[in-house]
């Protein structure tokens, strides 16, 4: 369940993963007047308060992670935990497209899937400086809207003593359910048992759920456990498992 951290300040804030220090982006953000709070984040490279997560990838890694399935897995996890998900692709993406020219159609289709099915937003950056400017602009935008001054949500397991936090954590683990929607669900149904037994129509009636997410929740609740993790690669996604360029590297 999310651990809530907050500050009374109205200064633009960005949470940066400590492993991003070498990129130079956190220091560039500070030069732009942003308050950078360095932490080891469970998902993403940056969190813009309260519920926006940003993953920075260089163009080469972005393309390779599309092929081996890491990107879809990561996008799904982040979409479950945060209301909005951004990817900033840093570098010459056109050059990578030329390198993978024999699979250009698949790459473009995968990008469309990422945006349409995972509700991910993509930004293209030419440098670390431009990445920092994107992050500063996003943080300023949400602060202006009045959202950035609310507590930031960093997704972690709750303590064993907090029943309420465990309930929210469990509901937030369902596809497409963020912190605010999880609270609405529990307020409507009153308990996890009632939530699990709710009909498709009852789930869909909750603000922030709708028919599509409700159907995914019911599908997950009813699906038998098979015990084998299946990785979606780009070639398998397009029905061409032979010749897939897969990698066993783990993404964070």
Automatic annotation (TrEMBL):
InterPro entries cross-referenced by the UniProt entry: ERCC4_domain, Hlx-hairpin-Hlx_DNA-bd_motif, Restrct_endonuc-II-like, RuvA_2-like
SMART domains, per database record: ERCC4 (SM00891), HhH1 (SM00278)
Keyword Flavoprotein tagged: no
Domain Helix-hairpin-helix DNA-binding motif class: 169-188, 201-220
Pfam families attached to this UniProt entry: ERCC4 (PF02732), HHH_5 (PF14520)
Molecular function GO terms recorded: damaged DNA binding; single-stranded DNA binding; single-stranded DNA endodeoxyribonuclease activity
SUPFAM superfamilies: Restriction endonuclease-like (SSF52980), RuvA domain 2-like (SSF47781)
Source taxon at top rank: Archaea
Statement: the UniProt record of this protein carries the keyword Cell division: no
Keywords: DNA damage, DNA repair, DNA-binding, Endonuclease, Hydrolase, Nuclease
CDD domains hit by this protein: XPF_nuclease_XPF_arch
Domain ERCC4, residue spans: 13-93
GO biological process terms on file: double-strand break repair via homologous recombination; nucleotide-excision repair involved in interstrand cross-link repair
Designated name of the protein: Repair endonuclease XPF
């Amino acid at each position: 369940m999310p651990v809530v951290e907050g500050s009374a300040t109205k200064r633009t804030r960005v949470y940066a993963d400590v492993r991003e220090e070498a990129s130079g982006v956190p220091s560039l953000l500070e030069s732009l007047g942003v308050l950078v709070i360095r932490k080891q984040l469970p998902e993403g490279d940056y969190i813009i308060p309260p519920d926006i997560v940003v993953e920075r990838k260089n163009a080469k890694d972005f393309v390779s992670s599309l092929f081996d399935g890491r990107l879809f897995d990561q996008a799904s996890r982040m979409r479950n935990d945060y209301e909005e998900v951004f990817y900033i692709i840093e570098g010459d993406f056109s050059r990578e497209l030329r390198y993978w020219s024999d699979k250009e159609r698949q790459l473009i289709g995968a990008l469309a899937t990422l945006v349409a099915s995972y509700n991910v937003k993509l930004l293209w950056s030419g440098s670390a400086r431009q990445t920092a400017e994107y992050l500063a602009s996003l943080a300023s935008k949400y602060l202006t809207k009045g959202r950035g001054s609310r507590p930031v949500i960093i997704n972690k397991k709750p303590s064993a003593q907090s029943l309420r936090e465990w309930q929210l954590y469990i509901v937030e683990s369902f596809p497409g359910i963020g912190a605010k929607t999880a609270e609405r669900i529990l307020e409507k149904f009153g308990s996890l048992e009632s939530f699990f037994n709710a009909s498709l129509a009852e789930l869909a009636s909750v603000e922030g759920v709708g028919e599509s997410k409700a159907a995914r929740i019911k599908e997950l609740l009813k699906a038998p456990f098979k015990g084998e993790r299946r990785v979606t690669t780009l070639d398998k996604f397009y029905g061409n498992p032979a010749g897939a360029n897969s990698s066993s590297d783990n993404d964070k």
